[in-house]
Amino acid sequence: MVPASYYLILGAVLFVLGAAGVLVRRNALVMLMSVELMLSAVSLTLVTYSRFLGQVDGQVFALLVMAVAAAEVAVGLAVVVALVRHKDTTDVDEMDSC
Question: I need a labelling partner for 59 at 20 to 30 A (CA). Which of 18, 68, 83, 95 fits?
């Protein structure tokens, strides 16, 4: 069986990659994907702790995180499509003024 520390390290690496993607990239779609990566890393950590402690609470919270991620994708993509129609670009530096 794989130790829990491997999953926690993987979750930390995924979270750092997502945070770096949000901070470094200027494309709105890449930033949304990076936020999704960070939410997936948090879900992995919650499920790992839930499995390690033998409780179901972490798995329930992971389902809630997935629901929030789905809502974030729907709203985020709608905002990006509206801004692209208005500004003709996905670069967030050019979207700051309307």
Answer: 18
How many Cβ atoms sit within 10 Å of the Cβ of residue 72?
A: 14
> Which tokens hold the place of 79?
């905002």
Q: Which fold has domain 4-87?
A: Helix Hairpins (1.10.287)
Report the largest interatomic distance among the alpha carbons of the chain, rounded to a whole angstrom. 54
Q: What is the pTM of this model?
A: 0.86
Task: Please report the pLDDT score of residue 80 as a whole number.
Answer: 85
Nearest to 66 by CA among 31, 34, 39: 39
How far apart, in Å, are the Cα atoms of 46 and each of 2, 62, 69, 89? 16, 6, 15, 36
Mean pLDDT, the chain, rounded, equals: 90
Dig out the tokens for 6 from the structure.
């491997």
Q: How far apart are CA 27 and CA 92, in angstroms?
A: 6
pLDDT at 62: 93
For the record, the structure tokens of 23 come out as: 């901070």
